[in-house]
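Hi U.,

Before I forget, here's the chain from the pilot set. I'm dumping it here mostly so it's searchable later in email.
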Amino acid sequence: MGNRTIQIIRPNRALAAVLLALSLVLTLLMVPQVPASHATEPDVVMVKAPKISVRGGGTAKAGAFLDSEPGSWEPADAEPSYQWMRGDEEIAGATEKGYRLAAADRGARISLVVTMSKVGFTSKSGTSASIDVLKAMTTATPKFTGIAVKGRTLTAKPGNWVPKSVKLSYQWLRNGKAIKKATKSQYKLVAADVKKTISLRVTGKKTGHETAVRVSSGKKVFDGIVAKKPKIVGIAMYGKRLTAKASGWGPTGVKLQYQWRRDGIAVAGATGSSYKLRAADVGHRITVSVVGKLSHVPTRTKTSKATNVVSYPTHANPVSKYRCPVWAPIKGNANSGIFHVPGQRFYNATQPEDCFRTEAAARKWGYRKAKV
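Structure:
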């Protein structure tokens, strides 16, 4: 065998370094690059939470206005947006810095969510502490009983208030102004109340509820029973009905009674508010007396002016087929256009359609007198 020469190849260190550098470059090129727009943005940071309060330090009740402070945030120039909350629900349209409490807010918890935003930052929200809005109270318009006369006692009737446990307080008013020390459920009328109007103010209070105030209607106070003279409406003529018009009586509660009079003398049984004139009234004048009565108060009587002398009408209807009233004896026959007076030849045989008190009245109706 011939001799062989074995050549040992030594690595080239410079080439190895180059290959290693190329490998690293390729590795870096294969790693995905994160776009700048997808880089993680910093958060807006709340330093101090939002705060809400009732304007003027008032009570949180329907109609009150709530102010807000957005709190402190970093960065300081972040822009706020607002959303008012009723419990866990957003209040539609309530996206301003302030908010006026509505009827729907009664008994609810109101809070404010503030969201802060700035370009280049992730928006963050913060919620204020909540405010409890007072509940509504169901009320009634108060009344009071009693007769509005000096010396009498009035009693409050507040009506039904809900909840039942509401605390009621009273204040009696004279012409709308508080009467000193008149703060109980009863009030005795004094001289200063005469000719004034008395009313009652009731105030209801309960924790967690709106305070409610209601005022009754008023009553005018009298020194006793007062009234104006009654008037008689109607014609003072036989068969007509007269009506008494009584007005100006007070105080409320006065009961009225009537008595018709003939020449000042009471007509038996004529005690209604109207009276139908009868034959006995002819030739006389009629009046009416109205009596006002009220428990524990002196009775008051007022009498009207007298009517004219009561007379018969000039015309009447027949009382039967051949007869006229005794006070209108003249017979008018419509078919002939002739009237007959008692004593004439055909008087008894005449069937009247009209009866007259005088010949002048018959002529006025278009009749002419019978010749015999």
